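Technical note accompanying the year-one report. For the benefit of new consortium partners, we illustrate the data format agreed upon in the data management plan: each record pairs a sequence with a structure-token string. No post-processing was applied to the example shown here.
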Amino acid sequence: MKKMTTLTLTLICLATLTALVVFAQSKRKKKQEPVVIGAEAKEAAEAEARRQAAGNTGKSPMPAGEYKFSREELGLINPKPNEFDAALADLSRRYAQSDAPERARWRRSISMDEFYTLLEFAKRVAVFGLRERSAARLADGLSAVAMVEQERVDYRDILVTLSLLHHSAARIGESPGKLFADAAALAEPGTAKLIRDFLKRPAKEKDLRASWGYDEVETEGGGGFIGWGFEKYEPTYDLKKVAVDVARLVANDKYENVSASVADEMARHWLETDDNAALDRALRSARAGATVHASHRGGAQTGMPTQVLMVFLVEASSEADARALLEIAGRKKSPDDGVLALAEGRLFCLLVARAGFMSSKNEETNESVRRFSAGLAEILHRHVKG
């Protein structure tokens, strides 16, 4: 079977992480069956292998080329329409105007990798439709979803995509019911069921922030979507903007696949020592948290990251608590990771760089990550004093 592209691998990993976050949030209220990580992706890959083995797949209608994202886009935070988006929009409209046999031929000829490209397009047009208040944009996205065969992707990717399109439709005053019904009529039975069943969910299960791990964020380009971690979020600083500014700082370095989320808890093990009383007090009373994730592949050809960078942001309840976290970070020694800690006002920031999945050697040290110090200090100062 053909190796999956970096985009496909990245989207599968993000879908799995989103599902695990939603599962953890719902588990607090009622008992759930355990999540088997990677099971859906494995089944999708097996279905794709069966399609290829059967032959007669036909020529894919997908346009030539692939997505090339600019550093300032930061995923769905600030995507910018490009020529490939336009080509996929044209494809989606032609699919919607085709008859049922032709649509079936198209679906059969599109590969699993290309399905993930269509889902990425649909997520991006959820942003464009929101910004432009355009039902036509959202219809293009839903037609792209309708091209996807449910068994050849992780079905959770479809659901997350639908959640974004549903949110944008409701926000601009359009009827999600009409848009979703039109898309379901264009899809194969498995995907059609996912589309129709999404509309039947209770309001909370359709709510982007309550159930799907995203929230809106404003940038100079207009509205976008930032990750949402389901934890306490009562900031007095604009923590979304802080996280976006930090993500941009990281994206301008050697790192890629940069994402940001708010309503997160800091992974406390980075600061744990023999005496965690002060750490417990500071984190227990914290008002809000945010996280920036990034990676780079170095020279590896696997598509998996060799280096990972994380930035944890905490708005403490007091300046004293922020300083306490900074002092704890100063005492914590990590010989294997590059660590940098700063504090300004009630904001505490912890940067951690470590070896990724495909590498046993960390490319960063405590000394090397100091290159982020001035930029992070400026961001914290600006948001605290502004």
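Partners are asked to follow this layout when depositing records. The longest helix spans residues 6-27.
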